[in-house]
Amino acid sequence: MRYLLRLMMLISLSCVLCGVFTLNAANTKNGTEQNEPSTTIEKIVSSKGELIIRDFYEIGEFQKEGVGWYKILLQGIVVYTPGSEERYFALKLFLTKADSDGEAAFLDYDELIASINAIDYMLKNAEEMSKNVYEDKELQFTTRGDLEVGMYQSGKRQGAFITMSKWSRLGTLYLNLAEFAKFKDTLSMAALRLQTLGAKTNEQKIIKEPGVKKDTSKINIVGKLYTKIYFVLIFLGLIPALIANSKGKSFIIWWLYGVVLFIIALPHSILTKTNWANVEKAQIKAGMIKCPYCAEMIKTESIKCRYCGSEVLAKGGGHNVT
After folding, report:
1. What are the backbone angles phi and psi of residue 7, rounded to the nearest 5°?
2. What are the distances in angstroms from CA 47 to CA 111, 146, 224, 268?
3. What's the CA gap between 223 and 229, in Å, rounded?
4. Is 308:290 a contact under the CB 8 Å cutoff?
């Protein structure tokens, strides 16, 4: 009974520990993802200890009228440092909705080109998709900054959508395919404007600007995550090790087994047969003796066997009993 209570306490404690660990890891990940700069242009602009120059160019707008009308303002950005020939090009999309504050998304130049190509692919496949009936089908492109553009078909009905980020307060902007094509043309116009400013179609300079350090926050998070997992596995490995050890098995071997393959080791330790010879050896080492009448293990100080009730001679006690 005492053994079962200990086992239940160990399992309960391990469940609580795993729950706390999972919740903590999820909170850490979500908080980091939300605050961490995602695009190249944001990382460069947020760098410290260096003079950064930003040039802004108004490019145009995309507007969807109707109930709760939306407007997306487009602004080109060129970032550089004094004396450097390197230029970083990006597009800022600022979404405003009637009677609401706006929110922005940033596209590095390479992602702007990729977004245009993705929308172009969706629109070209729309006609082919319309020949079939889908319960639900969705095509989606997501940028490093979590801007989402996509197309969907439900039954025979087709449409498109734009979401500024996974944390968007303004929700998703839904468009028909004609409006989606117009949005693609607006992005194409922005790409051409950035090209006149010096952007190239092969622009993929990921954090090469002198003085801008490579972001290591994700590496640190992964390291902390693995450390937590390591300690949890060490603890969980004790459960099958203790169970197997009570059955005469090696504690160290079963602990290692439990750390590496806990899900398999736990039921294995419960179902494995007891090695009574090893159990007796361990008990004798611990100072127990065999009852000369029923062969059960009893304490050295015992004067009466708790199994068969026979009276025994206590070790060094001088009790000559019959």
Report:
1. -65, -45
2. 21, 21, 24, 54
3. 10
4. no
pLDDT at 15: 55
Per-residue model confidence as pLDDT tens digits over 54-68: 999 999 999 887 766
pTM here is 0.52
- Two structure tokens written together for 170: 């303004």
For 172-178, the CB contacts below 8 A with 24+ separation are 173/64, 173/70, 173/95, 175/64, 177/123, 177/126, 177/151
The CATH number that domain 41-196 falls under is: 3.30.2450
Whether the per-residue pLDDT at 1 is higher than 70: the answer is: no
pLDDT one-digit tens code per residue, 223-249: 677 788 878 888 888 898 888 888 888
Domain residue spans of the chain? 1-36+215-272, 41-196, 287-322
- Tokens read off for 307: 């199994």
User: Whole-angstrom Cα distance, residue 17 to residue 24?
Assistant: 11
What are the φ and ψ backbone dihedral angles of 258, each rounded to 5 degrees?
-65, -35
> What's the Cα-to-Cα distance from 124 to each of 2, 48, 130, 177, 178, rounded to whole Å?
70, 44, 11, 11, 12
- Average pLDDT estimate for 274-295: 81
